[in-house]
Every structure is written in structure tokens, then in C-alpha cells.
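chain below, 346 aa
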Amino acid sequence: MYQNLHKLSKQHILFGHQHAMEYGHGWTGDENRSDVKSVTDSHPAVIGVDFYGLSGSPADKIAAEENRLKKNIEATYNRGGVTTVSWHFSNPISAGGFYWKDSISLPAVRYIIPGGTQHEKYKGILQSIGRFVKTIRGSDGKLVPMIFRPFHEMDGDWFWWGKAHCSREEFISLWKFTVSYLRDSLQVHQFIYAFSPDNNFKNEEEFLARYPGDAWVDMVGMDNYGDWGRDGKYDIPSGMKKLRIVSDYAIKVGKLAAFTETGLESIPNDHWWTNVLLESLKEARLQLSYVLVWRNDATSPTHYYAPFPGHTSVPDFLQFYKDPYTLFEKQLPCMYQLTGKKRKGK
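prediction:
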């Protein structure tokens, strides 16, 4: 998968959507359904899931979440798609969620890294994740690879692992231990590890401010909603400058690169897909593996980032889909063989 993502990024970009197969605008839990497929007749090439529910809950709830995730990830693999995993990790040492404001404001990082008083508890959480991941197999019997993107947007202050709540050294210790324990101690070899800060940088040095080192990262990316139209404000030149920093660094050190999160909530610009996102990405000629937009909430009338049948941006999204530069699931080669089949036409 790594080699195919690298090869494809030279001429194409995969389109991704968070929680695409779990729920969408006005529905939840339907078999083999996504809003993107309802519009284009193809699922997104990259399906985003989350390990949010794998800790901090009663055992029966964790088991149910594991079953749901396993079914989703295996189905994506069997169809030929790619899974990327985010981790909205609830604060492991206090009540509350993953947002700093929703926890009891305890700086958990210092407690769960090696030498911390809650380090063994964190090891237990990683052990449960490692055990679960090793149960995920495709219909061919092989373990399913996936992109794992822990501790994202670490340059902000909204998550408990953000820069306001731990030192640079503490964050890097957390990242290195997480990768080392999963990869080397637990022998989990299904992850491509993705490092993805938010857009709070202006140069390579700032982008790498909390980078743990090339030995601990396989993919570099960026989350950026602000430059692509959030709150009606566009600064595409600034956003593209940041994406170029990401892409150039990946090329320099032999990593994958991706636009790990973006989107325009409610898509009020009917031509955002072609005139904003596609035009900017094609013009820059970057080597990005994928671009992922955020989720479509099942109940909110306004919280969605991909079109659904009847939305006013559907005609433009179909042009986005048909462009040779973008790849959806139906157009992917075999991502899990070293020499994939010839790419299907659109």
C-alpha cells in the first residue's frame, strides 16, 4: 500500500471522507452506503475511521465498538479501498473527553510517557489496541494495513496533547513510545504512521517543531480548514504554501505526504470542489497521497463536508469526481500488490 500510494501521488490524489461508511446526512448504519457513493456511484478511495471508542468505556461497549470497526475496515480492504485511522483519545487520567475543555484539565502527557505515574495504564491501552488490530483480516486471510494518525493537530491547544499542555520533549517522548511499543514490543506491523499538525506554521522549521524524527514517521500531512474557506475566509496562497512545505519535506526524506483533513462545512460555495480545492491542488503539482474531508453528521442539518443527493454542489462534485487527477475507490489499482492492476477508467 505504501509503495502504491507513493506511485499514485506523482499523477493523482485519492479522495477521502471521514466516517463515510458509518453514517451520513440523515442516515446511520446502512450496509455498503456512503453519501459519496450515492452521488458518484463510488465510495471514497480513503475511508476515515476513529479509535475513539477503544478506551475509557465499559468492556462491553469497547467490544461492540471493536466489532463495528473491524467490519468496516475489513469491508474497505475487501473492496480495494484504503483506511485511515484518527484517534480522538479521551483523556486517560481524568474524566472527560479528548478536548482540553472537556477534560478536567489534567496534562495527561507527562503522566503516561515513560517515567510517568500512569505509564502502565497507557501501555495497557496500547496492548488492547494492538490485540484488536491483529484480528483485522481481509477475505484473503491477510492482516489489513491502515494509515494510523495519532495525536493530530498537536500544534493547537484544543486537545489535551496540544502544545499548550505538554512540552516538546514530552510530546516527542509520547510519540516515540507509542510507535516503538506498538511496532517493536507488540509486533504490530499494519500501520503507516502519519504526523499531521494543524496549519499553525509558516516554514519547515515550524512544521517540524514537534516532529519526532524520520525513524518514527512514515507519512507527513496537514489539517487545514481555515485557509480553504472556514468562516467565509479564503487564503489559498497561504494554504498552498503550507502544503508545499509538507510535500517538499516528504520528497526530501522519502516519506508519503497527504492533505490529512480539510473541507468546507455545509459547502455553501457550489463550485468549491473544482474552483477551489481541485484547481489549487492541480496547479501546485504537489505529490500528495490523498485529501480527506471531514464527516457528514447523521442528525445535524448543517454539519457535513461531502455532498449528498440533492445538495446544490452535486454537479460540481461530479466534475471533481470525473477529473483524471482525482481517484475514488472504483478507479484504484490493486493497492495491496506490489504491481497493481491497470487503473480503471472513469
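The radius of gyration is 19 Å. The first strand starts at residue 13 and ends at 18.
thats it, cya
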